[in-house]
Amino acid sequence: MSKTIAINAGSSSLKWQLYEMPAETVIAKGLVERIGLNDSIFTVKYGEGQKYEVVTDIPDHEIAVKMLLDQLIELNILASYDEITGVGHRVVHGGEYFDKSVIIDDDVIAKIEEVAVFAPLHNPAHLMGIRAFKHLLPDIISVAVFDTAFHASMPREAYLYSLPLAYYNDYKVRKYGAHGTSHRYVSQRAADMLEQPIEDLKIITCHLGNGGSITAVKEGKSVDTSMGFTPLAGITMGTRSGDIDAAVLPYLMKKLDIDIDEMLNILNKKSGLLGLTNGLSSDMRDLQDNKDKEDVKVALDIFYDRIRKYIGSYVAAMDGADAIVFTAGIGENSAVVRSEIVKGLSWFGVELDETENAKFGEHIISTKDSKIKVLLIPTDEELMIARDVEALRPSFK
Ligand code: ADP
Q1: Closest ligand 1 atom, CA of 328?
Q2: Which residues bind Mg(2+) (predicted)?
Q3: How far apart, in whole angstroms, are the C-alpha atoms of residue 283 and residue 288?
Q4: pLDDT tens over the chain, length 397 residues
Q5: CA–CA separation, 56 and 50 (whole Å)
Q6: Is residue 332 marked as binding?
Q7: N or C: which end of the chain has fewer CB within 10 A?
Q8: Is 330 marked as a binding-site residue?
Q9: Which residues contact 206 (CB under 8 A, 6 or more apart)?
């Protein structure tokens, strides 16, 4: 038995989950927020609903990690640092370098740094987490799990934009996708639930959270995904526009007299459901509560429409589909959203069992006769991270 910790480090946060492996039991989990600011918040959840929380100044990630390890001992969750034998880090962008999770060494760190140009808010923050753990627990296996890696299997026709080819060759402008760890997890679970080898299946996975992406998974591999060069592309999201005509940008920049940074800020933070509802909310719960309002109704219709069209296009891209999976905050919790999306797919022979659709948790929600099965699968990216650490352990020297 060994204890493995899954880490998601943000620029001012550190989210973690401690597992007993290979049992895959969550022993404790928590969050450090406002790192580098006043009144950082440090939370640990453990045992049978126990919670430890303290508000104090935590100036950097290394101090956050030290505090975390010490607190795990203090709370009798660990006897000593030595009990943690592996750490896995979520890394948003691996560029074209990584098609799977890897043991972190100096070369991996240099590459994560190099591709930080594609994820300037995320990769530098992940590196802070990686370095802090390396410093405090230098002898244990440390693994990077990339959000982009699952999409490395996309064929050229899916990942290249119709731009001059030199921009791909010289500057690596292409589709990278995101949420890969989630799409990988739910597609594997779907194959397990359908009791069929994943190599025989065509699955469309819908990760619908604040950010959302749809992926076409053929024979266990991502063959296309809705997010692009950045997570701005694809479906309508909480605050992101998703796909739009690029020519809108210069037109609006002139009209509003704003620069490109402000334009991108609008597309990332003020658009999507929030923008369509005139700033009412980006949160699906609020919108469902207000769906009698005309703007909200239109916003929701657009949300359903974009997702449905991606699903339709991925049926075409894979020449069929065996299953559609719903996951993440909206996908897991909103029966109404699932129902509205699937309503427009009856031509494909998709039919929901509304009694099953109304229930929570991992299960099949389509009727027995539905040509394409529909599954609700709560995602578990942290577990995937812990599993990847275990899978790489034998190659760790
Ligand atoms: P993130 O992308 O931040 O990880 P999540 O996967 O946590 O996002 O999803 C957040 C979204 O899930 C929000 O829009 C929230 O409203 C939505 N959500 C959570 N619970 C429900 C629910 N019961 N009904 C509808 N939407 C929900």
Answers
A1: 6
A2: 8, 381
A3: 9
A4: 789 999 999 999 999 999 999 999 999 999 999 999 999 999 999 999 999 999 999 999 999 999 999 999 999 999 999 999 999 999 999 999 999 999 999 999 999 999 999 998 899 999 999 999 999 999 999 999 999 999 999 999 999 999 999 999 999 999 999 999 999 999 999 999 999 999 999 999 999 999 999 999 999 999 999 999 999 999 999 999 999 999 999 999 999 999 999 999 999 999 999 999 999 999 999 999 999 999 999 999 999 999 999 999 999 999 999 999 999 999 999 999 999 999 989 999 999 999 999 999 999 999 999 999 999 999 999 999 999 999 999 999 8
A5: 20
A6: yes
A7: C
A8: yes
A9: 212, 214, 307, 311, 324, 325, 326, 327, 331, 341
Q: Is 284 annotated as a binding residue?
A: yes
Count CB atoms within 10 A of the CB of residue 64. Answer: 25
14: helix, coil or strand?
A: strand
Contact indicator for 311, 320 with CB cutoff of 8 Å = no
> Which strand (E) or helix (H) includes residue 114?
helix 106-114
Domains and CATH numbers, the chain: 2-146 (3.30.420.40), 196-381 (3.30.420.40)
- For residue 212, the cross-strand partners are 208
Do residues 238 and 280 make contact, with C-beta atoms less than 8 angstroms apart?
no
Beta pairing partners, 215:
205, 225
Q: What distance in angstroms lies between residue 329's CA and the mean position of ligand 1's atoms? A: 3
Give the binding-site residues of ligand 1, using a 6 Å CB cut-off. 209-211, 238, 283-285, 288, 328-330, 333-334
Protein residue with its CA nearest to atom 27 in ligand 1: 330
